Amino acid sequence: METLLHYLNLGGQWAWQQALLFWPVVVVLFLTLVILSSVPALVLVERRGAAWIQRRSGPNRVGPFGLLQTVADAVKLIFKEANIPARSHKFLFLLAPALAVIPPYLALSVIPLGGDVYLEGKFYAFQGVDMSVGLLFFLAISSLHVYSVMLAGWSSNNKFSLMGGLRASSQMISYEIAIGIAIVSLVITYGTLDLREIVKLQEHGSSLPAWGFAIQPFMFILLWVCSFAETNRLPFDLPEGESELVAGYHTEYSGLTFALFMMGEYVAMLAASAFLATLFLGGYNVPFITELDLRAVFLNMGMDMSAASMITVACQFASLGIKILFFMWVFIWVRWSLPRFRYDQLMNLGWKVLLPIGVINAIGTMLYTFFKFYYTSGGGAA
Amino acid sequence: MKDPTVFQYLLGTLIFATSMLTVLGKNPVMSAMNLMATLFLTGLMYFSVGAYFVGAVQILIYAGAISVLFIFIVMLLDLKPRYFQIPGRKPVYFLAGGISLLFFVGLIVSVLPALGENGILDFGLIATNELVSGSQTPEAISLRLLSKYMLPFQVTALLLLAAVMGVVVLGKKNKLPESDGGIF
To answer: With 60 as the cut, is the pLDDT of residue A99 above it?
Structure first.
């Protein structure tokens, strides 16, 4: 607090040292800007992509190539009345949309966005929160996402909404178990829960075989499938199955409250994509070059340490962004390609296919790690 | 050790308020939500004393999974709002109350060593050094779990096994004829 007061007393002079005390805030603000500006773009990509896949035109009237369509949608949603049904539980009805956005947004804050930025003689990690248990934190916070769907379903006082909420909660709980088992294999492989450590372990000259998808291919596919179920996207979007449930849990929502659900879905997809990219595609690593080598390239071009580290981090952030966009595109691609599962098929896939695969893989990983350790340490006791 | 911060006092107050609302609230879903809030805030309290692993596990398991199931069941039961009532005088209530009191006293006794000189509870000491200062890598945690804390670990496993078997027994009691389609 004293430093804050001191900083304010400087009378407009910009003091880097004081500002850097709030470095995490700077990163989180940056992240917020990126998320808020990418969600409308993603909505547009989804609609144009859907049209492209289905050989339609899609929205192409507002602005050049329909680029302003989401702006028009946003304006419409803001000025529409956010109707609250008469016999709903008002507090929970309004809490649910907020809970749809906040958990995935918080979860994104532990994702390492880039390497280290050199400022005023120190390195700063380009990450919202560098937490020793980032992996668990991500899972913990994103597991709270289910409350939005459940509470929206219950508080609307509508049978279709309730059915959607019930479907969502049992579906998300089931797939969380498969995710938990998949994570066990990963934690044994990497030996750490720190997401930044995990990204650094995948660096190894940044050759592609060092990336997670080559080390744990089955868990890559399993987690990828589960991320569809966790974000309630097709083919797992039973909670809002419009052919049976009108619109599922958000039947009664309109205006900005509906917009929050929409935004929450895209933020959750971003978070899931970032998580997959961090665990399996080397996170922010640029392929085939390590962070130090990349920085050395810029240093040799005559930049000072600070500028070189910033441009390196920018490259790494772009690399992470491309990986995230890849997963986002697959989310969209799958949505418009595959039909919806039946509910029993969904449950069978979760409990009878994905969970056993995860368990077998975890046991295999344990045995492999144990014997590797046993033989490399000269047969000594573990 | 440090004095509790304003943030920790705020968290403590919120935990107290939500846990009271869990018991006293009239709406079952709101009670379950308050329970979830209590568990989540407890996780935040662990974070605030530096026990990140326990905090994350607390939120993941209790706030993220177990209270989801509670709310799920409460929603299915379609319970009517009901005010808090003082239960009647059955012997079983006294037994349950007595056991709860015993646990509460045990909890207080286990916290007492953390009482600072000025009579303020030292939050840093409550979350014992094992949780805060020890290494929080999965390796270190599992080594501690499988050596020093082996007995509690195994007792918990036994308890869970008993619970699973209890559920199976309860579920088998009234065997319904095979139906071709349930709610899902």
So the answer is: yes
Positive or negative: CA dihedral B40, A229, A185, B151? positive
Nearest Cα of chain B lies from the Cα of A231 at a distance, in angstroms, of 15
Percent of chain A at pLDDT > 90 equals 10
A347 and chain B: CB distance < 8 Å anywhere? yes
**Which residues of B fall within a CB distance of 8 Å from A178?**
none
Contact B53 A147 (CB under 8 A): no
State whether the Cα torsion A52-A57-A62-A64 is positive or negative. Answer: positive
Residue B89 distance to chain A (closest CA, Å): 35
Look at residue B1 in the predicted model and tell me its pLDDT. Answer: 47
One-letter amino acid at A107 equals: A
**Using CA of residue A335, residue A337, residue A341, residue A346, what is the dihedral sign?**
negative
Residue A13 is predicted with a pLDDT of 46
Q: Look up residue A34 and give its two tokens.
A: 């990126």
Which residue on chain B is closest to A93 by alpha carbon? B30
CB contact under 8 A, B64 and A146: yes
In this structure, are residues B58 and B45 in contact, taking their beta carbons and an 8 Å threshold? no
- If you average pLDDT over residues A253-261, what whole number do you get? 86
pLDDT-wise least confident of A74-78, B3-7, B100-104: B3-7
% helix, strand, coil for chain B, step of 5: 70, 0, 30
- Collect all residues of chain B within an 8 Å Cβ-Cβ radius of residue A165: 75
Q: How far apart are CA B140 and CA B134, in angstroms?
A: 8
Residue of B7, B72, B135, B183 to mutate, testing the A interface (most A Cβ within 10 Å of its Cβ): B72
Binned at pLDDT 50, 70 and 90, residue B18 comes out as very high
> Residue for token digits 């049978």?
A159
Percent of chain B at pLDDT above 90? Answer: 17
What three-state secondary structure class fits A122? Answer: strand
pLDDT of residue B17: 93
Contact B137 A173 (CB under 8 A): no
